[in-house]
Each structure stands twice: as structure tokens, then as C-alpha cells.
Amino acid sequence: MSTRDALIQEILKQPEPLLRELQHYLAFLTQQECAKATTPSANYFERTAGALAGEPLERPPQLPLENRGKW
After folding, report:
1. With the C-alpha atoms ordered 17, 19, 23, 26, is the resulting torsion angle positive or negative?
2. Nearest Cα to 23, choosing from 7, 5, 6?
3. Are the CB atoms for 11 and 22 separated by under 8 Å?
4. Any domain includes 1
5. Cβ(17)–Cβ(25) under 8 Å?
6. Average pLDDT over residues 48-70
7. Which of 13, 19, 46, 56 has the greatest number of C-beta atoms within 10 Å?
8. How far apart are CA 42 and CA 29, in angstroms?
9. CB-based contacts of 14: which residues, under 8 Å, 6+ apart?
10. DSSP reduced 3-state for 2
11. Is residue 20 part of a domain?
12. CA distance 6 to 53
């Protein structure tokens, strides 16, 4: 049984007031996860600064220009 199926089975047994609380809690958790995704994690720049130091950067050959019709 998947986690989703187990949760659904448990939810079906619960009274409505508890389900309302659970709904609010899930909304809170979702909001927190969205905030994490849009905010850089702690020390992000300190951990990534210089990560490519010493790595040669190579530019691939430039593709030919696309021939387009006149305006």
C-alpha cells in the first residue's frame, strides 16, 4: 500500500472537525515548501562561490546564422 493510499484510508475514518484542522495544516506545510523553493538556502552564496575555480570554460562553436525572409 502506498503512503497516499494509507493516508486516504486513515482520512476516511476521521471526523470532520479533525479533517478541517488537517486541511489547514497541509495548507501551512505547502506554503512553507513554496517559500523554501523561492528563497536561497542558508549560506548558498558562500557554499557556491568559486565552485568552478580552476575549471576551464569552453564555448561551443557558434552555429551559422539562420536565413530568414525579408520583412
Report:
1. positive
2. 7
3. yes
4. no
5. no
6. 87
7. 19
8. 19
9. 22
10. coil
11. yes
12. 48
Question: In angstroms, what is the C-alpha Rg of the chain?
Answer: 25
Tens-digit pLDDT profile for residues 15-55: 999 999 999 999 999 998 887 777 666 777 877 888 888 88
User: What range does the domain containing 34 cover?
Assistant: 15-41
Longest Cα–Cα distance in the chain:
69
Q: Hunting for cell 513554496 — which residue is that?
A: 34
Cell numbers for 41, please give them.
Answer: 538556502
User: What pTM did the predictor assign?
Assistant: 0.46
Q: Does any domain span residue 28? A: yes
Cα 28 to Cα 31: distance, rounded to the nearest angstrom: 5
Total number of domains constituting the chain: 1
Give the type of residue at 40: P
**Structural domain contains residue 32:** yes
